[in-house]
Design brief:
CATH architecture of the largest domain: Alpha-Beta Barrel
Bound molecules: 3,4-dihydroxybenzoic acid, magnesium ion
CATH topology of the largest domain: TIM Barrel
Radius of gyration: 28 Å
Strand content: 25-35%
Distance between the termini: 60 Å
Helix content: 25-40%
Length: about 625
Amino acid sequence: MKTSIATVSISGTLREKLTAIAKAGFDGIEIFEQDFIADAGSPRQIGDMIRDQGLEITLFQPFRDFEGLTGDLRRRAFDRARHKFDTMAELGTDRILICSSTHPQALGGIDRAAEDFAELGAIAADYGIQVGYEALAWGRHVNDHRDAWEIVRRADHPNIGVILDSFHTLARRIDPNTIRRIPSDKITFVQLADAPQIDMDLLYWSRHFRNMPGEGDLPVTDFMRAVAATGYDGWISLEIFNDQFRSGRPLELARDGYRSLVATMDDVRRAEPDIRVDLPEMPARVTVEGVEFIEFATRGAEAEALQALLRTMGFTHIGNHISKKVSLWQQGEIRVVLNKETTGFANSVYTTTGTSLCDVGLRVASAAQTTQRAKALGATLFHQPVAPGELDIPAIRSVGGSVMHFLDAHSGLSDVWSVEFRPEEGSAVQAAGLTRIDHLAETMSYDEMLSWALFYTTIFDMQRSVMTDVIDPDGLVRSQAIHGPDGAVRITLNGAETHRTLAGGFLAGSFGGAVQHVAFASDDILATARDMAALGFEPLPMPTNYYKDLKARFALDDARLAELQAHDILYDEDAQGGFLQFYSRPFENGFFFEVVQRVDGYGGYGAPNAPFRIAAQKRMMLPKGIPAN
Ligand SMILES: O=C(O)c1ccc(O)c(O)c1
Ligand SMILES: [Mg+2]
């Protein structure tokens, strides 16, 4: 697989882009004309700089408004082309993209355009240049790859081919399978981009909202399957115009791009087993069977407070690590590990961010295959020295820098609890009916949400569901839920745009994003709430106004409402069923726990309740920092 990315796709100066692109593993770059004109170096110096990074210039683009002109305009278009060909010779590239004309005086006519390209082909041949013609979705006369291909077919020149760009085809809902009839030697170049499904002017959508394959809603894999079916084995290049990416971090963006390309081509190979894809073998997306543990880095008074809270939620301290200051708390299937070590990863998390969730253990069929796939997709493996008597549990760095461990039964890793822990005697607490982890809620900067979602959906068998807006009194937080099959694992990604939101405040103290809350499931939330109250748990208080509104919104009788209100339980319904949830009071840094009960397959997370929950949390947090007025 020959991987390329257009310089427009990421932020920075041309030099910064090149370094990031090379480091992320790409083989080549498309040079966008503006990037090159803005640079102080001569075309030859720029070409050398690119090659010094080990990159090839795969394409020079865009050349606009070429075809369909007459008279002087036509002559000038050919002069411009010769001028670009000269520049390309200096840069050291032999492939150019001509996008379909948007010129007000372009006449249209398949044969006229074909004649223009036949004539240009003869000039390009003298320079040894391949010209690719791309149908812009908003081209004046040509806006469909089938018409671009027909023009190329009639031009019938070896130096003229067609360029396929997934955005232009898929945004117009053109069946990508029509690509299968194009001969591969007539495909000059292939560009990939995804985009979220939004109803919008095509040009505006394309120039501002494209994203990496797999980050949006377009069937990019179907497009690429059709391209691969032609036998095309040339460059596959990302061309992503995106406002956020223009200001993002170049290396992270380039790495996301590489991850998205590899995952897409792996999907193509699995969907089209008869097509050879030149990509090392890797295991398929990994099904997460559940959350095996969550681990907090904590210490001192904060650890005491966390332990006290866990006790009031019905957790029992059941074990201690054989050699480390690490304790194990359990209820139902939920394991909470408290790490008070003063060396190692948990220590470094604690010293930078205070008590926080530093590690998540996921239960998978094969831990080794999980890290193998993650590595093939550019994830960083995580290692810590293993002391005698300890298991070497495979782990990777998650996007925000936290650690994710993988445990399986078949290689004995899930025996870690009996191997590495000694039972803690006589500390049993009455359990409160918490059974498992319903979801983990991670907070990150809004600009990084796509990156986090791509990480999860490419390594694991997980899908994005709808994006919801969470209204914080001080700003909007975007929430993207992702889940595995049967909801065995659910994660919500909450993208904060300002530090004044509850999520933003947490983010400011967490350096790069982390789990802000953990939701535990109960099969009977009222019984759980009563048991926890008896243990001394103090829920997040909800105002009476909330319950008055609930009465108006749902068919809940007074007795039921009174029960909910007595325990500060919030309520929601979707087309499937109902949802009940209550919250702990937030820690000083904004971390909290939630307890939920899903009834009859409710699929959401109680988003309509979020504004009231957040306002209540902010009321609790006020005395700590900001004065009330
Ligand atoms: O938005 C544009 O003008 C533009 C230019 C070149 C391309 O390859 C493309 O897909 C879009
Ligand atoms: Mg394009």
